[in-house]
Amino acid sequence: MGRSSTARKTYLQGAQFTCLRCKLLDNIVGTSILSDSNCELQISDSLVYEVCISFSISPEERVLLRLAQKNAFTQNDRDLLERIAEFVKFHLNLWLSARGDRIYTSEIPFSKLVNEIANELRAPANSIVGTSSILSESSLSSSQVEYIRTIRDNSHDLLTAINDLADLAKFEIGKIPHQVKLITTKTFLREIVDLFKARARNRNIKFNLEIDELVPDSFVVDDQKLRYVFNTLLIFFTSRLKEGEIKIIVERLTAKLIQFSIEDNGEILAEEVLTHLFHPYAVKRIEPLKNANITGISLTLVQKFITFLGGDIKVSAKDTKGTIFTFTINGEVMSDLEANLSKLPNATATNNKVLVIEDDYATSKLLNNYLTKWGYNPTIVSTEEQTFELIEKEIFLAVILDIELPNTNGLELLRKIHDHHNTKNTPVIVCSIEPDQQKAFLMGAVEYFIKPINYNYLVEVLTSYKLRKDSNILCVDDDVPTLNLIKQAIETAGYHALAENDSTKVMALIKDKEVDLAIIDLEMPEIDGIKLIELIKSQDKFAKLPIIIYTGKESYKDDLHRIDGLFEELLDKRSVNIEDLANTIDSMINRYETPPPVEEVMRKTDVTKILLAEDYKHSQIIVTRLLKKNGFENVVVVENGEEAFHMAEKETFSLILMDMQMPIMNGFEATEKIRQITEYKDIPIIALTAFAMKGDREKCLEAGATDYIPKPIDSKEFIEKVKYYTSVEK
Question: In angstroms, rounded to a whole number, what is the distance separating the alpha carbons of residues 654 and 635?
Answer without folding.
Answer: 10
